[in-house]
Specification:
The complex is a heterodimer of chains A (618) and B (166).
Chain A lengths: L3 H14 L10 E5 L2 H5 L2 H14 L6 E5 L11 E4 L6 E3 L4 H12 L12 E2 L2 E2 L27 H6 L4 H9 L2 H11 L11 H10 L6 E6 L8 H8 L1 H15 L3 E6 L4 H17 L3 E4 L4 E9 L9 H8 L23 E5 H13 L1 H5 L9 E8 L5 E6 L4 H8 L9 E6 L5 E4 L9 H6 L8 E6 L4 H15 L5 H18 L7 H15 L3 H5 L2 H9 L1 H9 L14 E3 L9 H5 L5 E2 L7 E2 L9 H5 L5 E3 L1
Parallel strand pairs in A: 1-2, 7-8, 7-11, 8-10, 12-16
Antiparallel strand pairs in A: 1-3, 3-4, 5-6, 9-10, 12-13, 14-15, 14-16, 17-20, 18-19
Helix pairs in contact in A: 3-4, 6-10, 6-13, 7-8, 7-10, 9-10, 9-11, 10-13, 17-18, 18-19, 19-21
Chain B lengths: L12 H13 L6 H12 L4 H11 L3 H10 L11 E6 L2 H5 L2 H12 L12 E6 L11 E3 L2 E3 L7 H12 L1
Parallel strand pairs in B: 1-2
Antiparallel strand pairs in B: 1-3, 3-4
Helix pairs in contact in B: 1-2, 1-3, 2-3, 3-4
The chains are: A alpha/beta (618), B alpha+beta (166).
């Protein structure tokens, strides 16, 4: 790519050639193929679509595939676009359904209203008008699910690489950094450090060689936005890294990505090769004498490598152990050279900010948290998926308007954000606006944006134990507060969940938590007590119930739960007894049965089998 | 893994394979982890003699190679089963019952987490978040993801991959 005019000409050409999704000139059927979609059978759906088109000898239909549109609970998802009509958006598509959709649309010229997600009675509405999408505002996820990530031309058709062109041909590096600073963009990976300032530090650091690193080691359990961005719009990350390289004076970048994300790695590899072929990476980009290239480095299953200094050690081929800061990586990073490390979602915002300007971005969000944030909505919620909302959206909007509330009429108990470094937000804060500072004030943190919803059946002590088990296992072992402290905390929590808690346990947890927070070497250690501290703050009564009453109010901690049969409800069918794996249930037919607590292993089969709700656990 | 003929000059095919892997990465800075990834993908695991050979080829101490191999959970120094069943133990999966699914696999396969069945067909593992939280609980068998699991799905999954054996 030698000039902006060349890029513009290419975009025009692509738009003319492209199918229904961007320019309406040919009917298109799109199968959305993110990892979630594939896991739910999207490949079989795609095969069925192709077969049916062949069977019916249809020639005027394009079949396309894109990344994930973020609506996981409806996967696999198929979109039918017909020139001059509203797009048709189908959810939970099976191969059989897919065949019918093809026949109805392209042979009979009808839609299948019953399966449509964007049906408004007898007609269709904009996809963005679906309740799930209505409160959302897409920036980082704009192209996810809209374009084919394996075709660079489709990215160019939606203005891809125009931000890089603008930066290289119209802006100085300092102007790029200034735009980033004014936009108010903060790091989306955890701490929320202002991106512009980070770039400025690296710009000011002297060095013959500098590096741009993309942190795609998305280790927080419950967060999958980085995977989706890399799978659905890898070119956005490549473009942003090149812009960052230009801004700080680096000509080499690394994407450090988890090996657990094979689709993301494959799409990224394809994208890097295409960008090289087209000259968006390589020598003398846009004829401006700027060289930049990228390499991928795979993680190997160590959570701590999400910490920036550990990540750098891992790229260098060493054990992923963090080191003290300062010096910060912007001064001395990869192989001792000035390095910036940005998270995937942060980078995905960059091209939009350069193209649309700092003011456009800073108009969204709250005073100190600008723009939008992607959340991965999961757990006990009806509509799971990947959502993007303006900063400052309330938890209630996210859980109830977008998420569709809690399944089976259960009560909302808490939302866990920030992964193992974060905390649980209780129902009393449902109307709090979500941004970096409010989350910290509530004892949690933004983290990478995983949001796991918990209902009345989730035990908060058990959740705290789960997270400590995680951090204890993932502690790299370099510093004693984290290595030993998390182990001791886990032991106490395990003791409590087993009904062996004593009254000094809570105090000991608090002392340990404070010590670890103040003395651990890296962010992983310093934040590891957060799940305990926040559950102690808002759900102390659950700890006390475990310790003093030897009860688990949510009925999760097996050693504290007893199964019994309510005599009035039991009709004596004997189904529970026949299914009990340890013969703990006995009785006579047509008379109430009883459970022998000594024999019972609390597996829960009896509750599952009883049709009359006669078995209870307390 | 050494050659049976004991002539001292010919190499076993495994080592020749590692030679080729090292060759493709020789100009990279920090090549150790990419080389280990490639070697494990080709051989299935990283036994001691392979680690020693890689150390020699890359000119790094064996202690450093072993330090890296033992640090990262994806590297293994013992052989794995033909099918690796990794149950996701991320938060969303945990909240939705991954623990029970794991327990059911342990029961039906007769092995504990981290172990391989006697016939070498299955290895049962827990893994960190797969990023498919929308389909929780999920697991992955080699590269195939299965989602929205209940304990009732366990025997179907085992049977599906058992049949491939026959």
């Amino acid at each position: 790519m030698r000039s902006v005019d060349e890029l513009k000409a290419l975009k025009e050409k692509v738009l003319k050639e492209m199918s229904g999704r961007v320019d309406n000139n040919m009917p298109t059927i799109t199968v959305h193929m993110g990892t979630c979609g594939i896991a739910n059978g999207a490949k079989d759906v795609l095969t069925a679509v192709v077969d049916e088109i062949k069977n019916k000898s249809l020639t005027n239909v394009t079949v396309a595939q894109t990344g994930c549109p973020g609506i996981c609970y409806e996967e696999p998802v198929v979109t039918v676009a017909i020139p001059g009509q509203m797009p048709f958006f189908y959810g939970k598509v099976s191969p059989e359904k897919a065949k019918k959709i093809v026949t109805e649309h392209f042979v009979n010229n009808k839609s299948v209203q019953d399966w449509l997600l964007n049906s408004d009675g007898n007609s269709t509405k904009e996809i963005s008008a679906i309740n799930y999408f209505k409160p959302q505002k897409k920036v980082a996820l704009t192209s996810c699910g809209a374009i084919n990530p394996e075709i660079i031309e489709e990215y160019i058709a939606v203005d891809g690489y125009f931000a890089l062109a603008k930066a290289l041909t119209e802006m100085t590096p300092l102007q790029v950094i200034d735009t980033m600073s004014k936009s108010g963009l903060r790091g989306r990976g955890g701490g929320g450090f202002p991106t512009g300032r980070k770039w400025e530090f690296a710009y000011n650091s002297k060095g013959d060689q500098k590096y741009v690193v993309c942190n795609a080691d998305e280790g927080d359990p419950g967060a999958f936005m980085d995977r989706s961005v890399l799978e659905g719009t890898p070119h956005a990350v490549i473009e942003a890294m090149a812009i960052a390289g230009y801004a700080i004076g680096a000509n080499q970048g690394y994407v450090y990505v988890r090996a657990e994300y094979p689709v993301a790695v494959a799409n990224l590899k394809t994208a890097i090769n295409q960008a090289r072929e087209m000259g968006f990476l390589g020598k003398n980009i846009f004829g401006k004498g700027f060289d930049f290239d990228l390499d991928i480095r795979l993680g190997a299953g160590a959570f701590v490598c999400g910490e920036e200094t550990a990540l750098l050690a891992s790229i260098e081929g060493k054990r992923g152990e963090p080191r003290p800061r300062p010096p910060f990586p912007a001064v001395s990073g990869l192989w001792g050279k000035p390095t910036i490390i940005n998270n995937v979602e942060t980078l995905a915002n960059v091209p939009h900010i350069i193209r649309n300007g700092a003011e456009w971005f800073s108009a969204m969000g709250t005073e100190k948290s600008k723009g939008t944030k992607v959340f991965a909505l999961a757990g006990k919620i009806n509509n799971t998926g990947l959502i993007e909302v303006p900063m400052g959206t309330t938890l209630r909007t996210i859980i109830y308007d977008i998420g569709g509330g809690i399944p089976n009429g259960k009560k909302f108990k808490a939302a866990q954000t920030g992964g193992p470094s974060g905390g649980c937000i209780p129902a009393e804060f449902l109307d709090m606006e979500i941004d970096y500072d409010n989350l910290i004030a509530m004892g949690s943190m933004m983290g990478s944006g995983g949001m796991i919803v918990m209902d009345e059946d989730t035990c908060m002590v058990d959740i705290a134990r789960f997270f400590l088990e995680f951090t204890q296992e993932e502690s790299c072992g370099k510093c004693p507060p984290c290595r030993i402290g998390t182990k001791r905390m886990l032991e106490i929590l395990t003791k409590i969940t087993e009904g062996k808690g004593t009254h000094e346990d809570i105090e000991n947890l608090e002392i340990l938590a404070k010590t670890i927070k103040n003395t651990a070497l890296c962010g992983l250690g310093q934040t590891s007590p957060n799940p305990v501290l926040s559950t102690l703050k808002y759900f102390r009564h659950e700890y006390e119930a475990h310790i003093y009453d030897k009860k688990c109010p949510s009925g999760v901690c097996k050693k504290l739960v007893n199964y019994s049969i309510i005599a009035e409800k039991c009709i004596g069918c004997g189904l529970c007894a026949r299914n009990c794996p340890v013969d703990a249930i006995s009785g006579e037919v047509k008379k109430p049965y009883t459970i022998d607590a000594e024999k019972c292993i609390k597996c829960g089969v009896c509750i599952e089998k009883c049709k009359f709700g006669a078995v209870v656990k307390k | 893994m050494s050659c049976q003929c004991e002539c001292g000059t010919c190499k076993s095919p495994q080592f020749e394979l590692i030679d080729r892997i090292v060759e493709t990465h020789k100009d990279e800075q920090g090549a150790l982890i990419p080389v280990l990834h490639a070697a494990q993908e080709a051989l299935g695991y990283l036994p001691e003699d392979v680690q020693a050979y890689i150390a020699e080829k890359l000119n790094v101490p064996l202690s450093e190679v072993y330090g890296v191999v033992s640090f990262y959970s994806l590297f293994s120094i013992v052989p794995k089963g033909k099918y690796k069943i990794s149950v996701c133990l991320g938060t969303a999966c945990y909240v939705k019952g991954a623990g029970e699914v794991m327990a059911e696999f342990e029961k039906q396969l007769g092995v504990k987490v981290g172990q391989t069945t006697e016939d070498g067909h299955f290895t049962l593992e827990g893994c960190r978040c797969l990023g498919c939280c929308g389909l929780a609980p999920v697991l992955v068998v080699n590269d195939n993801i299965h989602g929205r699991l209940t304990t009732n799905d366990v025997s179907d999954i085992i049977n599906k991959y058992k049949e491939i054996k026959q």
